[in-house]
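Design request, tokens follow.
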């Protein structure tokens, strides 16, 4: 995986900022959601409508010099599925494409950070060759090759939502930045009045 250490969300955030593709506030919020709530940076940007999957994938391909492939465009052999821990693939929505001697090809859901790829490489004992793919396509293909994936994804979403609710401070409303500023504003007004 030589050269992939630059595959980070911070680097992608810098590229998006420099190009003016996504508003700086949206990037900051997505990075905050990743750090504090465990959300996936690219998911936050796409699901909140700041950029389309295709446009974000194109930027990742161009900037990080990775090839693009649609995960559903090839048949996935059993040895590729068996080469990786299923839970890890589910958690990171990575689709295995094939294993060739000590090298495995995988499809990323637009961008998977380098640290995650290192853990996958260590778990599989294979050299990884990643392709950029689309989040929605990876989710669809995982559901086709692993019938248990849709239920796993629903349960994982419910766990994330419960964890997010648990981590919010009592009385903090929705837990976003605006609540903090509104609270500070109210304190200042109370102090002046």
């Amino acid at each position: 995986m030589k050269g992939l250490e630059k595959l980070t969300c911070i680097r992608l955030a810098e590229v998006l900022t420099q190009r003016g593709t996504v508003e700086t506030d949206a990037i900051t919020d997505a990075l905050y959601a990743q750090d504090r709530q465990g959300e996936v940076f690219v998911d936050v940007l796409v699901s909140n409508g700041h950029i389309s999957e295709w446009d974000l994938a194109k930027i990742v391909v161009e900037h990080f010099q990775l090839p693009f492939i649609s995960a559903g465009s090839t048949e996935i052999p059993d040895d590729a599925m068996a080469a990786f821990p299923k839970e890890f693939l589910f958690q990171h929505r990575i689709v295995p494409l094939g294993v060739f001697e000590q090298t495995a090809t995988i499809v990323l859901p637009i961008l998977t950070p380098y640290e995650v790829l290192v853990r996958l490489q260590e778990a599989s004992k294979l050299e990884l060759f990643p392709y950029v793919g689309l989040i929605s396509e990876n989710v669809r293909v995982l559901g086709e090759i692993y019938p248990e994936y849709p239920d796993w994804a629903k349960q994982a979403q419910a766990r994330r939502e419960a964890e997010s609710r648990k981590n919010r401070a009592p009385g903090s409303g929705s837990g976003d930045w605006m609540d903090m500023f509104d609270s500070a504003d109210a304190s200042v007004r109370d102090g002046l009045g």
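Comment from the thread starter after seeing the answer: thanks! The chain has ten helices and three strands.
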